[in-house]
């Protein structure tokens, strides 16, 4: 059976048995990738009890239809969809490979990204560091950690300078899209040296559990937040990002030119608690 991903605003369906996505023509993909437990073993606190070949997540890159191609190319944006499957690796909920984004030499801040949840419930772990490209693992300074809980139909902007990882904290698959500035360089090494970001997020007896990652020397207070809309930056809940980009592409200018938007983006997190 096929379930339509209605929140995407696109003719995209998930097969309920295989969990794979199907795109209806004329939409097409540029690339597809899968990650299993073995490929991510350095990023989990303990993956030793899982089947090494167990699928963790699938990425559908560069979803587009021909008539939109000129616009995406002009802005240098790419739209991808990720499916994080249901389940745990050790006590942790399944997650993506955490990373930081690069920046242009004439800019102060690294590139942000839009994350939109299409189905399920996400916790996006956002970890600020201004020196994430250090080569020695003990030299990283983590300035802030935000855990944003995002439901289907909601979206966030990953702020500039924040490394990020997406965690499936719901009871089924988590499907989310991202819209990002395509020339952006991606840095995975620092997160891998530390065996993940600062907080491991999992479940015990069906209750969420947070555990500090001891591979970091010092971690700041952790904030738990809910997302806040900002229509001027193209973030209106239940309005698909792909469609909003086609209608009002300039709203997403911040993706390639983040410096003057940092304060506005930080106001889009409603901090509910901290620990
Ligand atoms: Fe990213």
UniProtKB/TrEMBL annotation:
<protein>
    <recommendedName>
        <fullName>glucose-6-phosphate isomerase</fullName>
        <ecNumber>5.3.1.9</ecNumber>
    </recommendedName>
</protein>
<dbReference type="Pfam" id="PF06560">
    <property type="entry name" value="GPI"/>
</dbReference>
<dbReference type="InterPro" id="IPR014710">
    <property type="entry name" value="RmlC-like_jellyroll"/>
</dbReference>
<feature type="domain" description="Glucose-6-phosphate isomerase prokaryote">
    <location>
        <begin position="35"/>
        <end position="216"/>
    </location>
</feature>
<keyword id="KW-0413">Isomerase</keyword>
<dbReference type="InterPro" id="IPR011051">
    <property type="entry name" value="RmlC_Cupin_sf"/>
</dbReference>
<keyword id="KW-0312">Gluconeogenesis</keyword>
<dbReference type="InterPro" id="IPR010551">
    <property type="entry name" value="G6P_isomerase_prok"/>
</dbReference>
<dbReference type="GO" id="GO:0016853">
    <property type="term" value="F:isomerase activity"/>
</dbReference>
<comment type="similarity">
    <text>Belongs to the archaeal-type GPI family.</text>
</comment>
<comment type="pathway">
    <text>Carbohydrate degradation; glycolysis; D-glyceraldehyde 3-phosphate and glycerone phosphate from D-glucose: step 2/4.</text>
</comment>
<keyword id="KW-0324">Glycolysis</keyword>
């Amino acid at each position: 059976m096929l379930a339509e991903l209605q929140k995407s605003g696109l003719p995209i369906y998930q097969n309920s048995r295989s969990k794979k996505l199907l795109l209806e023509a004329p939409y097409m993909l540029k690339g597809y990738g899968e990650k299993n437990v073995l490929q991510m073993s350095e990023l989990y606190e303990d993956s030793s009890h899982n089947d090494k070949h167990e699928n963790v997540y699938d990425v559908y890159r560069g979803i587009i239809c021909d008539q939109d191609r000129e616009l995406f190319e002009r802005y240098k944006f790419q739209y991808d969809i990720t499916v994080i499957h249901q389940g745990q690796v050790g006590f942790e909920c399944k997650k993506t490979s955490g990373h930081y984004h690069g920046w242009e030499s004439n800019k102060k801040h690294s590139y942000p990204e839009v994350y939109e949840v299409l189905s399920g419930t996400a916790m996006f772990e956002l970890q600020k560091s201004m020196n994430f490209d250090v080569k020695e693992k003990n030299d990283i300074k983590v300035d802030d950690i935000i855990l944003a809980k995002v439901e289907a139909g909601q979206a966030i902007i990953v702020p500039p300078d924040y490394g990020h990882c997406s965690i499936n904290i719901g009871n089924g698959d988590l499907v989310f899209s991202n819209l990002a500035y395509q020339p952006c360089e991606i840095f995975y090494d620092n997160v891998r040296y530390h065996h993940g970001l600062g907080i491991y997020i999992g479940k015990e007896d069906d209750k969420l559990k947070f555990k500090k990652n001891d591979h970091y020397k010092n971690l700041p207070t952790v904030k738990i937040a809910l997302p806040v809309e900002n229509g001027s930056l193209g973030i209106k809940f239940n309005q698909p990002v792909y469609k909003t980009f086609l209608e009002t592409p300039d709203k997403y200018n911040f993706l390639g030119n983040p410096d003057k938007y940092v304060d506005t983006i930080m106001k889009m997190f409603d901090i509910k608690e901290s620990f």
